Amino acid sequence: MIMYTPAITGTGVFTPENVITNAELVTAFNAYADKMNAVNAEAIAAGEMEPMQHSSEEFILKASGIENRYVMDKSGVLDPDVMHPLLRQRSDDEPGIMTEMAVDACKKALAQAGRTAEDVDLVICAASNHERAYPAIAIEIQQALGINGFGFDMNVACSSATFGIQAAADMVRSGSVKSALVVNPEICTGHLEWRDRDCHFIFGDVATATLIERIEDADGPHFEILSTRCATEFSNNIRNNNGFLRRTRPAGLEDRRDMQFMQNGRKVFKEVLPMVSKHIADHMESEGVSSEDLKRLWLHQANKTMNDFIGKKVMGRQPEPEEQPNILQDYANTSSAGSIIAFSKYSGDFTEGEVGLICSFGAGYSVGSVIVKRHE
């Protein structure tokens, strides 16, 4: 059986036009907190409930390293009477919002690789937040781009992008497809509980796309996929019970806190960090890659403290900023797309033979890693 070598030949990033700064977010949240404290003044005075605490720019930056986030809608998020994005319900004859985001990222990835839709056999829409159950978003993206072949959706939360890359790389390697687009349209703001001080600052929206082809078909600079590895371990410490993308608050569920993003941050830190560090170390060792061989780590962009810990464990020392680039301060947590944004923005300086590692991790728990080597 003939086996082929997969390579990343192009990436693309769609960035929404709307930006919410920490200052804007804090102003809206504190206005909401004041409103709720006034409504519940008697219960608070009677000791029946605690008053809502204010948020602050200092608190957000210290807790996450985030300064801004891009969003598909900011008007609803910043309205103390709404406190969630206002995403209109589109007709069935219109492209979905995820397809709209994805097509932009896919076109950029194709352009970078010097390819057209006719060159693609497969579309995988790998994202943590989907706007509907079916038909598959990937098939809608496939149609919008004019791609023959097939497409399917997958969801492994914040690891969706690397799991999608493994699936695509395996299909290219086996010869079942010649090329594949792995696209990650993440509308994380639609699942965030903006009324919760502990997490109201975490997420932003974005879409990324990665084109994977047989290495012999690559026309320009590209990254050979040396190896991929995925792992999962069930945990309830990061969870969302609402299912698909929220446009309005479901009747009767306004007070169901578990219907939006939830996490037990302390347990996540304690359990995920060693899992991810060991996963990367074991993957590198199995492929004969040492920390000295790595030019760069493109890590999941969830929290700066987490990334700093993982980077130090993997490298055996504190990585230099260029060895572990962060985009978190500008984009916030964009779920599975974060590591691909970092890769797309900080891989152009690689030269022949240099090696890097992409890694994402999150709810599940899940972790996926991809070791790549640059070729001119």
Sum up the structure in keywords.
globular, nine-stranded mixed β-sheet, 376 residues, alpha+beta
Topology:
Blueprint: E1 6-14, E2 18-21, H1 22-39, H2 41-45, H3 57-64, E3 68-71, H4 97-113, E4 122-126, H5 137-145, E5 150-154, H6 160-174, E6 179-187, E7 205-214, E8 222-232, E9 238-239, E10 262-263, H7 265-286, E11 294-299, H8 304-315, H9 328-331, H10 337-345, E12 355-362, E13 366-375
Parallel strand pairs: 4-5, 4-6, 11-12
Antiparallel strand pairs: 1-7, 1-8, 2-3, 6-7, 8-13, 9-10, 12-13
Helix pairs in contact: 4-5, 7-8
The appropriate CATH architecture of the domain at 224-375 is 3-Layer(aba) Sandwich
> What order do the helices and strands follow?
EEHHHEHEHEHEEEEEHEHHHEE
CATH class descriptor of the domain at 224-375: Alpha Beta
Any idea what the radius of gyration is?
21 Å
Going across the biggest sheet, name each strand in turn. Answer: 5-4-6-7-1-8-13-12-11
**Shape label:** globular
**Percentage of residues in strands:** 15-25%
Mean of all residue-level pLDDT scores: 92
In short:
With 376 residues, the chain is α+β, with helices and mostly antiparallel strands.
Can you put this structure into words, describing what you see?
The chain has 376 residues and is of the alpha+beta class. It has a domain at 224-375: Peroxisomal Thiolase, Chain A, domain 1. The protein is built from 10 helices and 13 strands. The strands form 3 sheets. It has a 9-stranded mixed beta sheet with strand order 5-4-6-7-1-8-13-12-11, with helices on both faces. Helix 7 packs parallel to helix 8. The longest helix is centred in the C-terminal third of the chain and has 22 residues, at 265-286. The mean pLDDT is 92.
